[in-house]
Amino acid sequence: MNVTVQFFSHFRQIAGCSETTLDLPPGATVADAFARFPALQAARSSTLVAVGVEFARWDAPLRDGDVVAFMPPVQGGSDAELVLTDQPLADPGPVAGEIGAVVVFWGIVRAEESGQPITALDYTAYRPMAQHQFEKLIAETKGRFPIRRLHVAHRLGAVPVGEPSLLVRVEAGHRAEAFAAAQFLIDELKQRVPIWKQAITRATSA
Length: 206
Fold this sequence. Notes:
- With 206 residues, the chain is α+β, with helices and mostly antiparallel strands.
- It has helices spanning 11-15, 30-34, 127-144, 175-192, 202-205, and strands at 2-7, 19-23, 48-51, 54-55, 67-71, 82-85, 101-108, 112-113, 116-117, 120-125, 147-155, 157-160, 164-172, 195-200.
- Helix 3 (127-144) packs antiparallel against helix 4 (175-192).
C-alpha cells in the first residue's frame, strides 16, 4: 500500500524533504513508517504524529492512501471565530449589550528568542490540521466555560519584532469566566495546535 508522509518545521531539514511516498506492507503501522527515516529516530520520544488531521498513536494501523505527518512539539478584523492569516491582526470590534466582560490577549513578538536578539519570528503550520485542531479547541472552550463569543487569530509567515502573532478575545457575561476561558485556550493551543516558530536574526535575513 502507498502512504504519503509529510514533515513539518525543522523535521523537513532532518528528513531531507517535505513530503514523500512510502510503499508499505499491509498491516503496517505509524511506527513502521517512521522507521523508514533513520535521521529522525533520535527525536522519536518528542515527535508528534497525525494521520489525516487527527493526532495518532505509534501503533495506529495505516491504510492505502493515508497521509501521515511527523512533527516536532508545537510551540507556542473579522467576525470569524478562527483566523489563520499572513496579514496583520486586528481586533474584531465592539460587543453586544449582554456582554459584561471582554478579555483580550495579544501575543507580541519580543526582541529576543532564547536569549538571542532577533528581528522577527517566522511561523509555519500544518495548516489543515492546525485549522481542525483550533476548531476543536474552540468548541471545547465554549463547552467548558459560559462564554458568549470567542475569537482567535494567529499569524503565519514572518512577524517582525513588536507586532502581534496571536490574538485571543473572549466575551462573557462576567469577568471570571472570560479570564478562565482565555487562560485555558492559550495554554492548550501551545500543546495541541501544530504551529511552529523560527527566529529570524540579522544574519539569517541578510
